[in-house]
Amino acid sequence: PPLEDVMASPIACSILKEFLDHEGTSQTLVFIMELEELYRTRHVFSQRQRAECIYQKYIHDLAIMPLPLLSSTRLDIEAALFGPMSAHSELGPSEGHRKGYIDALRKAAGEVGYYITNYQYPCFVQSPKMMLARTALSNEQSDASGGMNSGPQSAVGKRTSLLSSFTASSLSIGSSGGIGSSSNRGGRGLGLG
After folding, report:
1. Distances from the Cα of 105 to the Cαs of 13, 87, 119, 129, 145, in angstroms?
2. Using one digit for the tens of pLDDT, what is the confidence trace for 57-99?
3. Among 31, 137, 159, 183, which residue carries the largest CB count within 10 Å?
4. How far lies 26's CA from each of 64, 122, 139, 189, in Å?
């Protein structure tokens, strides 16, 4: 099944996460899920606070769960969140500033999605866990055709739309500071080389 189907299924997605946990690389999938929560947050200050937490957890030089990102993407996110344009007025952050860090995080989501799609998911497909995911998807389709609810559709729609934007053509992966370069730290299996 396509990655989008696995991500749209709560059970199959949890099987994928379990596989990635075992491989020591689940931060990519968890990052995408945390971005979904960020995008659903409507209050500007809460959204900014979530964005800063995501930065500290996944993007910062000493992040506890580093991601395979271009160094330029890391710098763009840092500048959007903490640069001179990020100064708060007494009315709070401007819409332009909000758009800046949201756009920078979307770029990061594209790079991480590219990595999941082209490196992690093919390994998952070859693993015994894939049979469990196929069974879960088949059971959910049977339940859905029988009129039963297959899960929270709002989160599913967001996740699927994020995944549909993961294309190689939307990324400019260069040789200097690129994904998996020596400037990127990460857990086992995060380097592309």
Report:
1. 22, 19, 21, 30, 37
2. 999 999 999 999 999 999 999 999 988 755 554 445 556 667 8
3. 31
4. 12, 15, 25, 10
**Cα dihedral sign, 112-64-62-155:** positive
The 3-class secondary structure across 73-123, one letter per residue, is HHHHHHHHHHCHHHCCECCECCHHHHHHHHHHHHHHHHHHHHHHHHHHHHH
| The residue type at 101 | Y
CB 93 within 8 A of CB 48: yes
DSSP 8-state code for residue 5: H
What's the whole-model pTM score? 0.73
Distance CA 186, CA 180 (A): 9
Distance separating alpha carbons of residues 32 and 42, to the nearest angstrom: 18
Round to whole Å and give the CA distance between 66 and 101: 18
